[in-house]
Design goal:
- By secondary structure, this protein is of the alpha+beta class.
- Among the domains are: 89 residues, Gyrase A, domain 2 (2-Layer Sandwich); 126 residues, no CATH class; 151 residues, Glucose Permease (Domain IIA) (Distorted Sandwich).
- Helices cover 50% and strands 16% of the residues.
- The strands form five sheets. The chain has an eight-stranded antiparallel sheet.
- The longest helix has 45 residues.
């Protein structure tokens, strides 16, 4: 990932999702660009997934999620340089659409994602400080401990203020007015009134005073209501008074209203949610742990995991710990163990490289998505073995009463967060059992060669009469027609060279042929694109037409399947060019060498009109 051109990747994603005009909002989480599109049908998902650096695309929670791995902030930053999106301070959102569940997921993601890493960092510091205190390594009165505690606790204590900013962006309110409302909730005098336990009235109206430090739901609800008040005031107030009186009236109304109604109602709801989770764990902890441990990675797959964050934050705010988080740790480690088994067992150097990197990412940072999409899911069985291990390990951890004392990502660095509540020994046992089950099942029963492109290529090399490893390779024209320089094709990503060097051909025939002898590594379901790895290791992409993925296979008839060996000139597919033109798409067939960076040179040979089967590219290995 480090060698990727993030600028080209961002440009490619922007282009393939329908351009800036099709994006209503953009943000990112640990591994995903989370886009909200006006019209998902305009997004060329297959083309997005083909971009170098894109692991996969998921559509869930009303979001178009492009999984790119740990370097997503770099791609997000580049997106900000070429569009109005991509800045951490620019999360413009369109009005929420879709069903209530999708809107809820969208809201939670938009509000929590910007502070996620700082929230996790603060939780990690708190966990280590708690461990140091528990084992007597430092005294509570030590200034070092006090200062570090302030660094760790500040975000949690003033969480309503942080959430006021992100909620204001989402609900399109004045964020400074929102911050002032949040500040009032944790203002020392208000905290003192809540601590005194005496009856409190506001203009004769009884006020149920509560401690809003670390609270989540009250400020989110308050900012949501603030939006309605502000929009109403902006419509009715004269322009000469509008800028001043809007925040004056908003604060005058919202602070008392929040303390009188919104705060108590939402706080009681939050406490009820926490009590419900505690009751579930109290009634059948093993069942709760098994369900959460088994389903967690499935939920992560669809990017819906942040929708459960309010449960965790409510638990932490109301009880000081989260039972909900304990079974999730074994679930994550089980998937990492399955990846480790693949890394040891596979004979594919490419698969081993991906799996090894994913193991370190998951074990040390708790980020499993690159390994899930790049290793466990493609091989299928390792993922399900990880789910099984997570279910068993989650049940054991829950039986021991384990809980997290702070919000953390599920990595080995987060272990101190689980030492203060429940049996840490049982928690470690549950994690170990989950990892052993996933590792052993994957190692002994997991697939060895399935979905292993390197092994397929090795097999085809053994069957081929000639397998050159050095020198030059001729790549043939896949169709007859007029040659177009790659830089001139009407596709910015291909034209930029981000996919590799090559050329385009405007065809005058409907039959598309293989440009090399080798193994078919990819056949798009729509039949419009084919990836072939030659016997010499040259990776060729033949893309029939531009944006023709939108035709959903209509007019395309594949003649080969993935894993099949083909000879140079063999028929790959038949396309109905008349249908492509009638649908309004460009028929230009693109041929690019996707591993150009690994080769010495790729030189176009064909000019003017060519006949399929003649040398079109000269590749120097």
């Amino acid at each position: 990932m480090a060698s990727l051109d993030y600028k080209s990747l961002a440009a490619g994603i922007l282009e393939k999702v329908g351009g800036e005009e099709n994006i209503a909002g953009a943000t990112h989480c640990a591994t995903r660009l989370r886009l909200k599109l006006h019209d998902e049908s305009k997004a060329n998902t297959a083309a997005v997934e083909q971009l170098p650096g894109v692991i996969t695309v998921m559509k869930a929670g009303g979001q178009y999620q492009v999984v790119v791995g740990n370097n997503v902030p770099l791609v997000f930053a580049e997106l900000g340089k070429i569009s109005r999106f991509g800045s951490e301070d620019a999360h413009a959102e369109a009005p929420a659409q879709g069903n209530l569940f999708n809107r809820f997921i969208d809201m939670v993601s938009a509000i929590f994602t910007p502070i996620l890493w700082t929230l996790a960092a603060s939780g990690l510091i708190k966990a280590f400080l708690s461990m140091a205190s528990t084992f007597g390594w430092v005294d509570h009165a030590d200034p070092t401990f006090v200062i570090l505690t302030a660094a760790a606790d500040s975000l949690f204590y003033f969480l309503p203020v942080f959430l006021a900013v992100t909620a204001a962006r989402h609900f399109k309110t004045n964020q400074f007015t929102s911050m002032a409302i949040a500040g009032a909730l944790v203002y020392p005098s208000i905290v003192a009134l809540a601590s005194a336990g005496k009856p409190v009235e506001f203009a004769g109206i009884p006020v149920v005073m509560m401690n809003y430090a670390s609270s989540v739901i009250p400020i989110v609800a308050a900012v949501w209501l603030q939006g309605y008040i502000e929009r109403a005031l902006l419509k009715v107030l004269p322009s000469v008074f509008r800028n001043l009186m809007t925040p004056v009236l908003s604060l005058t109304v919202m602070v008392p209203l929040t303390l009188i109604t919104v705060g108590p109602i939402t706080t009681f709801a939050s406490q009820a949610l926490s009590a419900g989770v505690s009751a579930l764990f109290g009634f059948a902890p093993w069942l709760a742990g098994a369900v959460l441990g088994g389903l967690w990675q499935v939920i992560v797959l669809f990017g819906l995991h942040w929708g459960l964050l309010p449960i965790v934050t409510s638990e932490l705010a109301n009880t000081g710990h989260s039972l909900f988080m304990a079974p999730l740790f074994p679930a994550v480690m089980a998937q990492v163990a399955a990846m480790a088994a693949v890394a040891i067992r596979t004979r594919s150097a490419k698969r081993r490289q991906v799996a090894t990197s994913a193991v370190f990412s998951g074990f040390l940072a708790g980020v499993t998505e690159p390994g899930i999409y790049g290793v466990n899911l493609p091989l299928k069985k390792p993922f399900f073995f990880g789910v099984a291990g997570g279910a068993v390990g989650g049940a054991i951890a829950a039986i021991g009463g384990s809980a997290a004392s702070s919000f953390v990502f599920f990595s080995v660095m987060a272990l101190p967060a689980f030492t203060a509540v429940g049996s840490f020994a049982v928690f470690l046992l549950g994690t170990a059992v989950a990892m052993v089950i996933a590792f052993a099942l994957t190692f002994f029963f997991g697939p060895r060669e399935q979905a292993d492109d390197d092994a397929e290529a090795a097999a085809s090399d053994a069957a081929a009469p000639v397998s050159p490893t050095a020198g030059n390779v001729s790549v043939l024209a896949p169709v007859s027609g007029s040659v177009v320089a790659l830089s001139e094709v009407q596709d910015k990503v291909f034209a930029s060279g981000a996919m590799g060097a090559g050329l385009g051909i405007v065809p005058d025939e409907d039959r598309v042929h293989s440009p090399v002898a080798g193994t078919v590594q990819a056949v798009m379901k729509t039949g419009h694109a084919y990836g072939i790895k030659s016997d010499a290791g040259v990776e060729v992409l033949v893309h029939i037409g531009i944006d023709t993925v939108q035709m959903k296979g209509e007019g395309f008839e594949p003649a080969v399947t993935r894993g099949e060996r083909v000879e140079a000139g063999q028929l790959l597919a038949t396309v109905d060019r008349a249908k492509v033109l009638e649908a309004g798409y460009d028929t230009t067939t693109l041929m690019v060498i996707t591993n150009t960076k690994d080769l010495t040179a790729v030189v176009p040979l064909a000019v003017g009109h060519v006949t399929h089967g003649v040398p079109a590219l000269d590749v120097e290995l």
